[in-house]
Specification:
- By secondary structure, the protein is of the alpha/beta class.
- The chain has one domain: Alpha-Beta Barrel (TIM Barrel), CATH 3.20.20.
- It is built from 17 helices and 8 strands.
- Helix 1 (4-10) runs antiparallel to helix 15, helix 8 (146-156) runs parallel beside helix 9 and helix 16 packs antiparallel against helix 17 (320-332).
- Bound molecules: adenine and zinc ion.
């Protein structure tokens, strides 16, 4: 029996579904609240952690957007991002593709550049000091209008060389991907690589819309695809990556427990599945913990762990040479 804990720690990984605002640990939230004189509804770290009990996606988002209000300056965004990168390095993350939600900040009067500059400076420092490569993906908040998303895209256009992709997050129910067709058409024309959250709480039809109407390269979550056999066939045939977030899915009641999670079934179906942490400060674990708890709950084999790590690089937006290099490093661990 392999030492799964050690194997998972040693496994080179790419993280492809991580909201940087979701890495705001209560300790840093308290510090930034003090530094910026922003009121927060918690008087201690313990009280904040106790409040992190969610009944569904929306109940999480309410708390998550409130927490983000402590992020005001370029230094705040730097500190947030660098703290995440240090944790990722401890989990042997070699490459990360992080989401940020500009509207969460610009709607509070924070300049787009302040957010982007702080995050990017930390990513560059992480590349230098921790050897973690990166891509940045800007998400549109789907509970807001398509016009607001278009205005956000316009703000991003002068920074095209700094932002690799666009994504779609926030409240999924009643906000189908089709609502953002024009925004995605324009974003793709401008050279942004498209991804979208779909099939987390929303129906398989939203996954189809993300593929057919938004023409996405990856589906974030996508776990509800198993309800539609034809859709699964297509996702397998086209090897569309699904960036699955097991601890998130349990915290947000997509599955009752990790034992009930369908990740094993997704792998068995031949889908290109990856494991990610989504909003680790709120969901109880970073990527290593997601791998470990899922391995234990579902009894994943070392071959399945190898597949998941390989998939994380294959599904990334890295150039092919870099992908081959990382996959070689993954495979080396399994040679004897
Ligand atoms: N924003 C942050 N985390 C999210 C998730 N899991 N689903 C949708 N929007 C999000
Ligand atoms: Zn997400």
């Amino acid at each position: 029996m392999p030492d799964f804990k050690q194997l998972i720690k040693d496994l080179p990984k790419a993280e492809l579904h991580l909201h940087i605002e979701g890495t705001l640990e209560p300790e840093l939230m308290m510090q930034l609240a003090e530094r910026n004189q922003v009121p927060i509804p918690y008087s201690s770290v313990e009280e904040a952690r106790r409040a992190y009990e969610f009944s569904d996606l929306q109940s999480f988002l309410d708390i998550y957007y409130a927490g983000a209000a402590v992020l005001n300056t370029r230094q705040d965004f730097f500190d947030l991002t660098y703290a995440y990168l240090e944790r990722a390095a401890a989990d042997n993350v070699r490459h990360t593709e992080i989401f940020f939600d500009p509207q969460t900040h610009t709607d509070r009067g924070i300049e787009f550049d302040v957010v982007l500059d702080g995050i990017e400076e930390a990513l560059k420092a992480g590349q230098r000091n921790l050897n973690i490569s990166y891509r940045l993906i800007m998400c549109f908040l789907r509970h807001l209008s398509a016009e607001a998303a278009m205005a956000t895209l316009e703000q991003a256009l002068p920074h095209k060389h700094r932002i690799h992709g666009v994504g779609l997050d926030s409240s999924e129910k009643d906000h189908p991907p089709a609502k953002f067709k024009a925004v995605y058409d324009r974003a793709r024309d401008a050279g942004f690589l498209p991804v979208a959250h779909a099939g987390e709480e929303g129906p398989p039809e939203y996954i189809r819309e993300a593929l057919d109407i938004l023409k996405v390269e990856r589906i974030d979550h996508g776990v509800r695809c198993l309800e539609d056999a034809d859709l699964v066939k297509r996702l397998v045939a086209e090897q569309v990556p699904l960036t699955v977030c097991p601890l998130s899915n349990v915290k947000l009641k997509v599955f009752d427990t990790l034992v009930d999670h369908n990740l094993g079934a997704l792998l068995d179906a031949g889908l290109c599945v990856t494991i990610n942490s989504d909003d680790p400060a709120y969901f109880g674990g970073y990527i290593g913990e997601n791998f470990l708890q899922t391995q234990q709950a579902l009894g994943l084999s070392s071959a399945q762990l190898q597949q998941l790590a390989r998939n994380s690089f294959t599904a990334s937006f890295l150039p092919d040479d870099d992908i081959s290099h990382h996959i070689h490093d993954v495979d080396r661990l399994f040679r004897d």
